[in-house]
Design brief:
By secondary structure, this protein is an alpha+beta fold. It has three helices and seven strands, in the order H-H-E-E-H-E-E-E-E-E. A hairpin with a 2-residue loop joins strand 4 and strand 5. The longest helix has 20 residues.
Length: 159
């Protein structure tokens, strides 16, 4: 039986893999970080690389993966390399469910320049699967300047 410490470490590993796998274009492995029925949303704010919709919602692992692949692969083909940097997550665990918040910065590097492409925070819900792996069941990305979704906490609780 995993301890609370083991669970926290496994959740932090899931969060780290979230950044590393997408940066290396390993989208299928990245998709395995989500439950089959996960929901992901992006609440747009200040975007360096384009004018996307103010709110974008994807339902199900396959749709989430295709959305991210469709946004990242064209950049990679143009020689843009992304680096997702995550702040230390705040994690609350309740049995086989958890909530995690963290901040992020995305750096876009080309042969000519290095730019901050996006900043914001993630609000996520995770579940421990029968295989013992923690996966995102809900991932909300709120870009800096983006609107908070109804019911979202602007900050994690202090206690």
């Amino acid at each position: 039986m995993p301890t609370h410490h083991d669970d926290r470490e496994a959740i932090e590993r899931t969060i780290s893999l979230y950044s590393h796998l997408v940066d290396f274009g390993r989208f299928d492995e990245w998709g395995d970080l989500f439950t089959e029925d996960a929901e992901a949303s992006v609440h747009g704010g200040v975007q360096v690389w384009g004018d996307g919709p103010a709110v974008s919602v994807q339902r199900g692992r396959a749709e989430i993966v295709e959305f991210v692949r469709g946004n990242v692969e064209p950049l990679r083909e143009k020689g843009v390399h992304l680096l997702h940097m995550a702040g230390k997550p705040l994690v609350e665990i309740d049995g086989a469910r958890a909530t995690a918040w963290w901040t992020y910065v995305v750096v876009a590097t080309t042969a000519e320049a290095i730019n901050v492409a996006a900043t914001g925070r993630y609000h996520t819900e995770l579940v421990r699967g029968d295989d013992g792996h923690w996966r995102f069941s809900n991932r909300t990305c709120i870009e800096t300047g983006g609107p908070l979704p109804v019911g979202a906490l602007s900050q994690p609780p202090a206690h």
